[in-house]
Amino acid sequence: MEERVKKILTEAGIEPDSAIERFMGNEGLYFKYLLRFTGDENYRRLCEAIDAGDCKSAFEASHTLKGVCGNLSLTGMEKIVRDQVEYLRNGDLEKGRAFMKDLKESYERVSAALESVKEYI
Amino acid sequence: MKETDNISNTLLIVDDSELNRVIISEIFSDSYKIIEASDGAEGLKAFHENKREICAVLLDVIMPVMDGIEFLRIFKEEGEIKNTPVFLITASESTDVLREAYDLGVMDVISKPVVPYMIRRRVDSVIELFQARKKLRAKVIQQGFELLKQAEKIIELNEGMIEALSTAIEFRSCESGEHVRRIRDITRFILQKTSFAGKLSDEEIEVISLAAVMHDVGKIAVSDQILNKPGKLTNEEYEIMKTHTVKGAELLSQIPQMKAHESYKYAYDIARHHHERWDGRGYPDGLKGDEIPVWAQIVSIADVYDALVSKRVYKSAIEYDKAVDMIKNGECGVFNPKLLKAFLEVEKDCRKLYTGS
What we know:
The complex is a heterodimer.
Chain A lengths: L2 H9 L4 H7 L4 H9 L5 H12 L2 H18 L2 H15 L3 H6 L1 H18 L4
Helix pairs in contact in A: 1-8, 4-5, 5-6, 6-8
Chain B lengths: L9 E5 L3 H11 L4 E5 L2 H10 L4 E6 L8 H10 L8 E5 L4 H9 L4 E4 L4 H56 L5 H17 L8 H11 L11 H4 L7 H19 L2 H5 L3 H10 L20 H16 L10 H9 L8 H19 L2
Parallel strand pairs in B: 1-2, 1-3, 3-4, 4-5
């Protein structure tokens, strides 16, 4: 992994080294799934469910999103979702909705980073 | 049972997230084959189709169609959980869920996102445990068989030794090993096929029959001249001959291993009392009627019959029917009427021992 790539990813709240360890050092495999993240349904589903006031669906989407962020070491996003998911689990949609601003920001940062490095990985 | 190498080296990963499956697969793929399923129902199906190869199941909790807990319930009901370890791979679950999972038999709960060296160690060591247990179980069963075979051999050896000893002693009076065997067989016939001795277990019958083999070991204390005299014995010689009963019993009591053997009490009685008579005029102790141990009575009549129908140094062989008549008429000693009756029941069978048919 080039130093430049690592810098861009790290600044977007990603920890690529820890993720690559999880992927048994298989960089190629990690990057393959990392790049798929931009198409990840769970973020979209979460947004829709929050908008529709559907706490149950929001919880499920948040929970799954947390798993994905954990696996890919999207640490910045993961921290936010981790707290959000507990409120949604307990049925508190409003408290869950409060996290969406920060989450959106973090998500867009990640997306931008991936866009800029995609031809190099 | 041949010990074959364990062929089950496949992991079943049950998780609805492809990403999770990929990561876990990557962690284990250098040592295991991987089968994947994306929900509990698929997981059960995949398990049944590949049961023999699967050595562990890695199971997610939240899945559509059938979740991990439901999978576990069915897995346990089917009795599979005892033979195949299941690991829960989960993000935070409530303690109730975890408790239920453990109650259903889950080996370990591993948190997501997984850390490779941790999950490897925890899964590997449990799989190794299960495989070692399987091998051990198989080995124990196999050793059980081998022990049994060895025990049988030892028993055979003991009996062989006893027979050898008795044959060697009888050999001095030109009796063959066959005489010894015939006494054993006749004794066994009477014990097995008649109700004379009451109800005995197969083992007891064998033990008493073996004891019968040693009835004349006391002859080792009697000189050749007397043992092999072709003519009638003098009174003095006869008295010495009679001592083979007492000497035989004494000899047996001097052998520690014999004394500890289960056949000892029968062997002692038989050696000492096989020349007693029902009317009390036998030797050495002049026991009368039911005082004479039942097993000694049996050997007594067997010995008489064998002596009659075989050629001996002092007489030739007598025809079967004549021998039977002689015994019935009390020409060769006085026997318990019940014993006589029992003997006559099996006498025809005894003839086969002489013709070899």
